[in-house]
């Protein structure tokens, strides 16, 4: 059997084709899994009400500190505690971060083994507590505004400066890397996604995504675009499908690593692959295998039947967490539906942080308190401190490191740590250039031109309303929809839906005003990031300057042909897709 011999072609008459090609190993795993789920369902059915009652009645005492650290948004709760360890390092270094983490974990584990005296443990816990109390005291005595005004993000800026001056990053890379964005699904079916195939996979993955930014009007945007009868939203907004937990790393990693190793040995033994191909496979699988999604989730979120009966329909997943969650979400997306179209909505970075804070202030937790219990200044100061104290590749200027630009590896690692430490990441989420650059880079790595794959707009332009805002929305719907199918909804209908989409304006819900001082500090912090955004997008109007009187709405890219105006971008993917060389 050829290496990709078990690629699944869906057949209208037989949706169960997939099961006939599963390997026996995977079948038994699947059987075990479904047996487990049956048992779980029975248990849940029987014990469900009692368990629910217990959960509801459980007292949830939470210190302020815990509240701060957990910052309960839906995404926060879904964040895993650590990434899985690697098998093989990809050619594009995608899992270097995992490897580093593993080494660190090893050191920690060795330390733990040496440290078998329990009293020592107690002491260190007490020490930690004392340090923390001391830290808290220091925090309380600090004037957040004064401290914030000295915070800067030079290393990030230097990294971006260097990246943006390096032309190489703007060249579409060899499609070989696209092959590495290939997925192997967890049930061991080799998977070769293609935008053309009328298969279960395409019908279960989103046709386009709204990836962020959080608090930039994504909900209204979702409401607006789903007005069109052929735009089918996922089961809900923010399905978080391409964030780590949805891919259930913990569950699959071990199983998949073992099976991969076994499979590779079999293939080599049977001389079914030569060593180069073996290496290619190992590279391709090491990272991607971990991002292969669970089929159950896909089916739930994008019902295949609905989509199959409507060939012109495109599906949408709007999850603002994705933009922030690089590189994991990018990899997961590139691996699962590399043809997907991406829409980003931005907002003045300072206003976005302020909105983020107000949102968290007005959301109530189980104990009736807001998830954060601090002033805006304390909130962002805490974030600034988190960024400044990240160990290895601190975002903050450090002794001896200040002249160096951070490497991609540093940035990825620091960002990962940052997301772990402060998952809401209010300051980081407004550093648009850094995030969008990562998305562009990844698209280019798989051979896609960002100008064809991405559209970027601003909340401010849509908020202003009028004919131009309506046109922007219409243009975007037009872009994601198949040819000639965009007239079902008029521009004004999109705009009305956008206006009505706004659920709650948290900023106006009795929050104090944003002080001019703090606003100025944040505007200053973001000014160089905005400059770089303008450079990245090739248009000065993306600088988000408060003095800007130009009220022309912006859509990136400004010069676009019709090349991306089909359901899927077919150019390089058709000929050079992941299956072409196999
Ligand atoms: N139509 C319209 N006009 C003006 N402003 C609007 C609109 N739609 C959303 N918004 C503002 O966007 C903020 C919410 O953004 P999101 O929907 O992306 O939030 S979330 O990430 O989904 O939680 C939130 O901002 P703040 O009110 O400043 O907090 C909304 O008021």
From TrEMBL:
This is Sulfotransferase family protein. Residues 1-33, 85-149 are annotated as: Disordered. The active site is at 215 (for sulfotransferase activity). 3'-phosphoadenylyl sulfate binds at residues 347, 355. The chain crosses the membrane at residues 40-57. It holds the Pfam family Sulfotransfer_3. Residues 100-109, 127-140 have a biased composition (Basic and acidic residues). Residues 110-126 have a biased composition (Acidic residues). Keywords: Membrane, Transferase, Transmembrane, Transmembrane helix. Signal peptide: none annotated. Residues 10-33 have a biased composition (Low complexity). The lineage of its organism: Eukaryota, Sar, Stramenopiles, Ochrophyta, Bacillariophyta. One of its GO terms (molecular function) is sulfotransferase activity. It comes from the Eukaryota.
């Amino acid at each position: 059997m050829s290496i990709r011999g078990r690629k699944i072609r869906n057949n209208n008459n037989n949706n169960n084709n997939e099961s006939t090609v599963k390997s026996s190993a995977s079948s038994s795993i699947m059987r075990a899994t479904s047996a487990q789920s049956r048992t779980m369902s029975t248990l849940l059915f029987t014990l469900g009400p009692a368990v629910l009652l217990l959960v509801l009645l459980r007292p949830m005492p939470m210190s302020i500190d815990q509240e701060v650290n957990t910052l309960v948004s839906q995404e926060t709760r879904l964040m895993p505690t650590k990434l899985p360890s690697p098998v093989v390092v990809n050619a594009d270094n995608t899992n270097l971060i995992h490897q580093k983490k593993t080494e660190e974990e090893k050191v920690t584990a060795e330390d733990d083994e040496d440290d078998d005296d329990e009293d020592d443990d107690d002491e260190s816990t007490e020490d930690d507590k004392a340090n923390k109390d001391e830290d808290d005291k220091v925090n309380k005595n600090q004037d957040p505004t004064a401290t914030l005004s000295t915070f800067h993000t030079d290393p990030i800026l230097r990294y971006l400066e260097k990246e943006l001056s390096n032309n190489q990053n703007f060249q579409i890379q060899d499609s070989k890397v696209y092959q590495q964005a290939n997925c192997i699904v967890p049930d061991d079916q080799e998977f070769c996604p293609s935008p053309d195939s009328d298969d279960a996979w395409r019908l279960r993955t989103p046709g386009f995504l709204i990836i962020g930014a959080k608090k930039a009007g994504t909900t209204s945007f979702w409401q607006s675009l789903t007005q069109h009868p052929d735009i089918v939203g996922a089961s809900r907004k923010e399905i978080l499908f391409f964030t780590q937990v949805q891919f259930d790393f913990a569950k699959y990693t071990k199983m998949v690593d073992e099976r991969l190793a076994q499979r590779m040995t079999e293939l080599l033994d049977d001389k079914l692959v030569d060593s180069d191909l073996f290496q290619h496979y190992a590279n391709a699988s090491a990272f991607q295998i971990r991002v292969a999604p669970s089929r159950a989730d896909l089916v739930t979120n994008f019902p295949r039947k609905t989509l199959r009966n409507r060939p012109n329909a495109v599906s949408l997943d709007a999850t603002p967490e994705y933009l922030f969650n690089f590189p994991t979400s990018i990899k997961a997306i590139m691996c699962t539906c590399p043809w997907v179209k991406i829409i980003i909505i931005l907002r003045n970075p300072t206003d976005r942080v302020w909105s983020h804070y107000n949102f968290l202030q007005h959301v109530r937790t189980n104990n009736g308190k807001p998830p954060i219990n601090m002033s805006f200044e304390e909130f962002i100061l805490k974030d600034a401190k988190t960024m400044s104290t990240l160990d290895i590749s601190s975002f903050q200027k450090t002794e001896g490191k200040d002249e160096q630009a951070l490497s991609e590896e540093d940035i990825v690692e620091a960002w990962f740590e940052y997301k772990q430490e402060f998952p809401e990441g209010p300051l980081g989420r407004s550093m648009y250039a850094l995030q969008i650059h990562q998305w562009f880079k990844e698209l280019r790595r798989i051979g896609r031109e960002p100008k064809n794959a991405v559209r970027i707009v601003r909340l401010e332009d849509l908020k202003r309303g009028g004919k131009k805002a309506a046109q922007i929305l219409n243009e975007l719907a037009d872009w994601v929809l198949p040819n000639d199918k965009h007239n079902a909804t008029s521009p004004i209908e999109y705009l009305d839906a956008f206006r009505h989409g706004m659920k709650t304006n948290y900023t106006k819900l009795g929050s104090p005003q944003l002080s001019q001082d703090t606003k100025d500090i944040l505007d200053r912090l973001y000014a160089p990031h905005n400059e770089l955004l303008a450079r990245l997008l090739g248009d000065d109007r993306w600088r988000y300057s408060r003095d800007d009187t130009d009220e022309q709405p912006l859509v990136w890219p400004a010069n676009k042909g019709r090349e991306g105006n089909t359901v899927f971008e077919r150019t390089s993917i058709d000929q050079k897709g992941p299956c072409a060389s196999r």
